[in-house]
Every structure is written in C-alpha cells, then in structure tokens.
Amino acid sequence: MPVTSVNSYYTTGASGTNPAVPAKSSNGQLDFNDLLKIIVTQLSQQNPSKAASTTDLVNQYMSIANLQSSTTLKTNSETEVAQARETFAANLISKKVNILDKNGDPLTGIVESSRVLDKSVLVTIGGTEYEASAIQSYLQTTP
After folding, report:
1. What is the pLDDT of residues 105-134, one digit of tens each?
2. What is d(CA 85, CA 99) in angstroms, rounded to the nearest whole number?
3. Is the pTM of the predicted complex or chain greater than 0.90?
C-alpha cells in the first residue's frame, strides 16, 4: 500500500523547506520511515490549543503498521517466488520435454541446462535456448 500523496498537516520553515518533511523517493512513493517523519513533524508543529486527536494519531499509527506489514509480506513473497523459480529451473535439467520452438513448431528434446533471467526460466535444448513457458509436456524417461 504505497502512499503517493499526503495532506498538508505541516508547514514549511521560513526558507520554504523543512528537513523533517521527506521528499518523495525516486519512484515517487513514500515509505514507512517517510510516514513516521511526517507524523513526528505534525506533532512537533501542531498548535497546542488544537492538539491532534488521539483517534487521528492511532489511525495514522495503524496506517503505518499496515504499510510495514504489507511491505514485509510483499518482500517475503517475492523471495519465495524467486526461490521457487530457481528450483523449477534446476529440476528441468535432464528432463525430456515437448516444447514449442520460436516459430510455434513442436520439438522434443532433453533439457541440457536452465537458468533464471529476470522473471523468466530459460532452458537449453539441442544448444538452443527457449522459454520454459513454451514447454507443452514432460515425457517419461527410462534409466
């Protein structure tokens, strides 16, 4: 749950900038630490006669906790998917497969090697590299 905008609860200093107010990151989104800085800035610059309500502060804290939890879950999921992709690639080696070549023609061969490139698994059959997603079926091999 990335935050892409924040309401103006804080004011800028005389120079027009405030070091406690974070600038957006290079991807244009704020992270957990940015939100925490905004809340601290909000509390330090609030009008004492109009203090922030406890409910607002709890809601902001819960938003931060949810963001941190979502970020952790996403990171863990991405790691698990990457590990599964690598395991899949390793398990393809020496398997006999039916695969479609780059022209869409069927080909049967044994996977000589495999590798992960970004989010794709590539297999080498007969010295040519193919996307593993082009595999149509796995064939029984005899020892």
Report:
1. 999 999 999 999 988 999 999 999 999 999
2. 18
3. no
